[in-house]
Amino acid sequence: MAGYDLAVRGGQVATGFGTTRCDIGVKDGRIVAIAERITDAARAIEADGLLVLPGGVDSHCHIEEPQPGGGANEETFATASAAAFAGGTTSVVCFIPQWKGHGVWERYVDYRARAARGMLDHSFHQIISDPTDAVMEQEVPRVVAEGVRSLKVFLTYEPLHLDDAQYLRVLTKARELGCLVTVHCENYAAINWRTAELLKHGMAAPKYHAWARPPVVEREATHRAIALAELVDQPIQVFHVSCAEAAEEIARAQARGVKVWGETCPQYVTLTAADIDRPGFEGAKFMCSPAPRTREEHARIWEMIRRGTLDVISSDHCAFSYEGDRGKRQNGADAVFRDIPNGIPGFAARLPIIFSEGVSKGRISLDDFVRLTSTNPARLMGLAPRKGMIAVGADADLALWDPAKKVTLTNALMQHAVDYTPYEGMEVTGWPVATIRRGEVVMRDGKVQAEPGTGRFLPRGPYDLIRPRGITPDGFDPAPPPAVR
Ligand code: URP
Ligand code: ZN
Ligand code: ZN
């Protein structure tokens, strides 16, 4: 009987800490050997000329979020899994919604069942939009005990946004429970004020979405999110940083030892405000929040990535079709930017775009790429070393990558459920030719071949590495204010 179920042979294995030509032996879905030569395997995949990367970990994506009135967004866990595998991603952390006036436990149970129908290994952030006594004292601890170790808050969006008092309450509970808090940072009142002014003057087209939320609203909310987290001494991750002003707030806080991490997304190094201004109503296809900025801003974001201020690159995949009842086009020319659903699809495009714009164009190293798109999100989310690493004992999640392959992105290649990609026509160099999830080839040459229902829930433990200073497992232990530390 063969010693290994699978051997991946002869590839350049990129660990994020160097690249070596070697073989990987897989047994029962895990990596059990990394050696110069492995021959004793039931099946071998020859990877000569290819890079062997840890499967991508996408720690910010919206999948099949159920809506209060029934239904869910278009991307199901099955379609999302196909899109993710098509792009070399094998694990995701997505969002359990909370609707105002509702609890979270029922949603958790429902969302676990939905996710179990997909093929991706998955974990969740619990959105908190209504932090009542019952939710925070009874239901959230129950969900966290299941292994949901991150809470997500929005500082803008109707009806999700929290005010400062509510945000502080979430931070305090997260500290007590050993969770990370992830934050959407934009100033709610400022956006509402700008939106009302723009609409009063008849400025309703998609391009005014960007006018309503300039960098200063992101910078202000990022500063406040960090300041309150510092006060509580609670680790946070700032999501989808789009501009240097916001990234500089993070850099300053990191320099004084605050436990804050920053994430950005491919759209903030590729799309611009000019895309939201495309003729007709096409601009709606590029509407996400924060809004895409400028080419100059892209260069600053790359610099913040190189410095390590932004150390995770997620997709923020949040897919709405252009056409259709609930699509972005809505009633065409008469639509008002305020009412167009925010968010763009990006699962399959994430790794190819960052590899092409980053590694192929010499902006970041291959090691950086692996860490930004796989190892760092896995570590921050408490999924490592099982995910995000090529190491003995880790799940055998791999992307076999052709670094020289040139591809023109099209919607069909993305394999998601919606009718467009904002990256249509973009040329990339570097492409996944196979994706392996727990030792099973789930995508080969663009053909996804995994069975629905094979994705696994990934429960996460308390945040040992970033545990708040001085907290005791059983007691309330308020952090001293920064001034007396
Ligand atoms: O426009 C975006 N980003 N939509 C998704 C929801 C969010 O803010 O992350
Ligand atoms: Zn957001
Ligand atoms: Zn998001």
Automatic annotation (TrEMBL):
Gene3D superfamilies assigned: Metal-dependent hydrolases, Urease, subunit C, domain 1
Post-translational modification: Carbamylation allows a single lysine to coordinate two divalent metal cations.
Names of required cofactors: Zn(2+)
CC per GO annotation: cytosol
Keyword terms, alphabetized: Hydrolase, Metal-binding, Phosphoprotein
Residue intervals of the Amidohydrolase-related domain: 51-442
GO molecular function, one term: hydrolase activity, acting on carbon-nitrogen (but not peptide) bonds, in cyclic amides
Family listed: Belongs to the metallo-dependent hydrolases superfamily. Hydantoinase/dihydropyrimidinase family.
Function field: Catalyzes the stereospecific hydrolysis of the cyclic amide bond of D-hydantoin derivatives.
Protein name: D-hydantoinase
Organism field: Neoroseomonas alkaliterrae
